[in-house]
Structures are given as C-alpha cells and as structure tokens.
Amino acid sequence: KNEVEQSPQNLTAQEGEFITINCSYSVGISALHWLQQHPGGGIVSLFMLSSGKKKHGRLIATINIQEKHSSLHITASHPRDSAVYICAVHSPRSNRDDKIIFGKGTRLHILP
Amino acid sequence: SAVISQKPSRDICQRGTSLTIQCQVDSQVTMMFWYRQQPGQSLTLIATANQGSEATYESGFVIDKFPISRPNLTFSTLTVSNMSPEDSSIYLCSSMKRKGFMNTEAFFGQGTRLTVV
Predict the structure, then answer these.
(1) Do the beta carbons of residue A35 and residue A86 sit within 8 Å?
(2) Is residue B1 scored above 80 in pLDDT?
(3) Is B91 on the interface with A (CB under 8 A)?
(4) Per-residue model confidence as pLDDT tens digits over A21-64
(5) CB–CB of B48/B55 below 8 Å?
(6) Helix (H/G/I), strand (E/B), else coil: B61
(7) What pLDDT, on a 0 to 100 scale, did the predictor assign at position A26?
(8) Are residues A82 and A108 in contact, defined by beta-carbon separation less than 8 angstroms?
(9) CA quadruple B37, B41, B43, B45: dihedral positive or negative?
(10) Which of B94, B109, B113 sits opposite A40 (nearest CB)?
C-alpha cells in the first residue's frame, strides 16, 4: 500500500462545478503540500499545510491531522484548472534528512 | 519562503548524450533533493544533494548515471548520463529549509521534461 493515496485518480467535470480531490497518508508528517502539474510537466506549489485550512483564490485546502487526510477544493472550476494535482507529505525521519513522499496525482479535466 | 529556478524546463535529447539540469535557489537552504517522475508514476527520490560532499543516492540510482553537484548552499545540478529512451521523464528538484525542531519548509522547482529519442 502506498504511503500517500489520492482519490480519484482521474476526474472529468463541467466548467463551474465544485471539485474535491482527496489525499490520505499513513505516515507521521510535519506538513503536506498540494502541487499542480501542468500538461507540459511544469510544477507549481499551491499550498503547504500543517493544520487547518488555507484559501487562495478559488482554491481551498484543508487538513485533518488526526484522520491523516487532506482535501483540495476548487470552486467555480474552469478549463484552465485542468492539470494533475499532486499531494506530497513531508515526513520527518530521526537522525536523517526529512523525506517527501508524493502521491500519484489526480488528473483533472474541466470541460467547457 | 524560497524560490527555486529550474532549467531547462524541457529538452529533447539524442540517446547516448548527457543533459545537465540546474536548480538555483534564491536563499541558502539546508537540503536539496532530486526526483524523477516516469510516465504514469509518482515522483521518486533519486538522491539528496549535500553541500561540499557526495550526494546520497536512493536504492536503484547510481552516481555514474546521475552525477550530482552541490557547490554551495543555493545551487545544484543533476546530470542524466548516457541517456536512453527509458530516461524520458520529468525531473524535479526541491529544497528544504529548517526553521526549528520538527519544522522544515519544502520548496519545489518547476520540473524538467526530458524526452530521449
């Protein structure tokens, strides 16, 4: 079982729909990242969370440390939101460098 | 926070050649890392770039294939050597900055899409 699981793997929705992408993890973490990977491969960091909720424009990210779960929401989705969204957790390791573990990503396609 | 500039963003290379990818951070960072994302797979750690010493490689990755340099606290390079089509992937650098006990921030480059023909 992967240490970071995302769902769904693929999501197609109509423009304007409310989108939710989920991330569950099984390791202890100090932070969680949501990344956006554009069709050309470029990667943009959207959020880094260690607790609670963050909002940036139409994007909202939440995390529940006790349940080891995070969600990324997109309100009023638009075709330009089409991308792969990657969840990555920041896992401290005693006496070693911290480790980042990536989920496999959720491929989102917003239809006009 | 820190900003990482990764170059090139993409390249198409001939098999047997080598490509060097650069990452420049706009501030001094403790750790820098290099990842590979093969088609349809998640990002996988190649190695940790240590300033002033040899990189630490993960299982399955070797220095001869992926030599790494880290001459200072703001810069690192990854070379993909003697490339074959199987090396076609996205390569990503990231960095970390310690802010205290159990408190480390991570930053990511933009990724390099490599196609080997």
Answers:
(1) yes
(2) no
(3) no
(4) 999 999 988 889 999 988 777 788 899 998 999 999 999 999 99
(5) yes
(6) coil
(7) 94
(8) yes
(9) negative
(10) B113
**A39: contact with B, CB 8 A cutoff:** no
Out of B33, B48, B108, closest to residue A35 by CB? B108
Q: Please name the member of B42, B92, B96 whose beta carbon is closest to the beta carbon of A98.
A: B96
Which residues of chain A make contact with B94, given a CB cutoff of 8 A?
A: 100
Show the tokens assigned to A17. 């729909």
Residues A59 and A49: beta-carbon distance below 8 Å: no
Q: Give the residue-averaged pLDDT of B68-82.
A: 94
* Cα-based distances in Å from B97 to B3, B6, B101, B103: 12, 18, 11, 9
Q: Which residue of B has its CA nearest to A94?
A: B102
Single-letter amino acid, residue B17: T
CB contact under 8 A, B90 and A41: yes
Q: How far apart are CA B63 and CA B10, in angstroms?
A: 22
3-state class of B15 per DSSP?
coil
Tokens of B12: 């198409």
Residue A13 burial (CB count, 10 A): 16
Residues 6 or more apart whose Cβ sits within 8 Å of residue B35: A102, B43, B44, B45, B46, B91, B92, B93, B94
Structure tokens given for A98: 């911290």
Q: How far is A100 from chain B (nearest CA, A)?
A: 8
Which DSSP letter does residue A75 get? S
3-state helix vs strand vs coil in chain B, percent to 5? 5, 55, 45
Rounded to whole angstroms, the maximal C-alpha distance in chain B is: 46
